[in-house]
Structures are given as C-alpha cells and as structure tokens.
Design brief:
The protein has 274 residues and is an alpha/beta fold. The chain has 9 helices and 13 strands. A 6-stranded mixed β-sheet has the order 6-13-11-9-7-8, sandwiched between helices. The chain has a 5-stranded parallel β-sheet with strand order 3-2-1-4-5, sandwiched between helices. Helix 3 packs antiparallel against helix 4. The chain is globular, with a radius of gyration of 19 Å. The N and C termini lie far apart (39 Å). Residues 4-134 form the LpxI N-terminal domain.
Length: 274
C-alpha cells in the first residue's frame, strides 16, 4: 500500500480534488480541515478531523495517529490575527518563528510552515505532484489565443507581477492599454478582479488581460497559482480580453468547464513560458 498522505485543507475546491485524486490512485489520505478557512462539507465527507491553525500540536498528533508520512497543504487559508490566535503548547513554541516569517510576506510564512513539518519528520509535497494533470500547458486552452495587439500589455504585466513577487506581495495584475488597472495583494485574485470591474464599470471595449505568475523563488509546494471558472468570469466582468498564466506552474481547476466558459465568453486563456 502506498504511504498515507495528510491533506491540510483550506477553503475552495483544491482539497476536494486532491482527495479525489488520491482515491483514484489508490493512495490512502487523511484530511484535516482548518476551522475558519475550510468550508464544512458534510455532504462530501471530506474532512476526517478539524483543527484551528493555532493548534499545531493537535495537527501534528492527528497526522501521526493517522499514520501519515507525507503532508500537502492546499486551499485558501485566511491569514490569522496572531494577537488573538488561540494556541496549543506546540503552537506557543513555534508561533514566534511563524510571526517573524509573516512580517516578510506570505511566502516566508509558508516556508516556515514547511520547515516545521519537515522538522517533525513529515515529507511536504506539492499539490501538483498529486494533480500533475491539472498543470497549465503552454499555449491556448480553448478556441481563443492571445492576440498580437495585446503583447505589450502582457510584457508590462509580467514586469509588474515579477516586481510584486520580488517583495512577496502577490501573484497577479490586471493590465489594459499599458495601464496597471489593479494588482493583487492580500485580497487574492477574485477580489482583485472585482475591484478591476468596479474601476472599469461602463467600459464597452473588451481589452487588457490578467497576468498571473509564481513569485520568484516561491515555495511552490504550498502556493502554486491557481485559476478556475470563477477566474474566467471575474476577468470577463472586468472587461478583459483574457488571461495569461505560467505554463507548467499553474493549477487549472475544472479545466473542461473553464474552457467551455472562456469560449462562451470569448476570452483567451493561455499558458506562457518566461
């Protein structure tokens, strides 16, 4: 039997897809839902146990008791208020390291979490190692491709996102007509797109694009860029012509549904290698 995988689940569909993949692969899995981040899905029977993000000792104990040797962290996790976070004894021991890392940005925070799990004897794996069929390929998905007229916006978007990533701020930016319409920070991609839609309200010509790339030297095992149907719909609501993401380093959730929606809305979704 293959080694059991512990899935530490935040919000969104990614943890569910990881569990489905484990079942298809005949790989045993144990799911810990993070209270306050993971949606309770009793009808799906996803979570085997629940723990708060401050209950580090409880999480480690649950993983050991379940016989897990590997750990994957997946899904959206709300950044906690460290001043009010309730901690167990292990949490009290490691929280100074986590807080110190968090001051430098989310990537540093995630790296510190990876190190803690590795120190406890767990192998941390990336979601892409389980869901390699969800990685974005190079080139267009669906009917539409990036038009040559938008290449300047793409190049500017790449420069902006790389600058954001260099200071561990965000993974995405909206660029139209050479202007940076919105950049991603703690709010995430969906809210950034909603803000861009507000700024472009009444815009009648669809142009510009969303650019989404990993941060330089990013800890890809725990924070790969991800897009789904909601990303396509958000880009359309913002009046954009399409989406460009990193090929081989972006997870595409519900690919068939995403392609169908993008084609119906007339948007391109392309994977780029830079």
């Amino acid at each position: 039997m293959r080694a059991k995988l512990g899935i530490i689940a935040g919000g969104g569909d990614l943890p569910v897809k990881l569990l489905d993949a484990c079942r298809r692969q005949g790989r045993p899995a144990f799911v810990i839902g993070l209270t306050g981040s993971a949606e309770p899905r009793p009808e799906d029977g996803v979570a085997d146990a629940w723990a708060s993000i401050g209950s580090v000792g409880k999480i480690l104990g649950l993983l050991r008791d379940a016989g897990c040797t590997g750990v994957v962290m997946a899904g959206n996790v709300r950044r906690p208020d460290f001043a009010t976070l309730r901690l167990d004894w292990k949490g009290i021991k490691v929280i100074p390291r986590i807080v110190a890392a968090a001051r430098h940005g989310d990537d540093h925070l995630l790296r510190s979490l990876v190190t803690i799990f590795e120190e406890e004897g767990f192998k941390v794996v990336g979601a892409d190692q389980i869901l390699d069929d969800l990685l974005m390929p190079a080139g267009p998905l669906g009917r539409y491709d990036l038009p040559p007229a938008l290449m300047p916006d793409l190049e500017r978007g790449i420069i902006i996102v790389r600058a954001l990533g260099a200071v561990d701020v965000g993974q995405g930016a909206v660029v139209a007509g050479g202007d940076a319409v919105a950049v991603e920070a703690a709010e995430g991609t969906d809210r950034m797109l909603a803000r861009a839609a507000e700024l472009r309200a009444g815009w009648t010509v669809r142009d510009g694009l969303l650019v989404k790339l990993p941060k330089p030297n990013q800890e890809k095992r725990v924070d790969l860029p991800t897009i789904g149907v909601a990303t396509v719909e958000g880009a359309a609501a913002a009046g954009l012509a399409g989406i460009a993401v990193a090929a081989g380093a972006t997870l595409v959730l519900d690919r068939d549904a995403l392609v169908a929606r993008a084609d119906a809305l007339g948007l391109f979704v392309v994977g780029i290698r830079r």
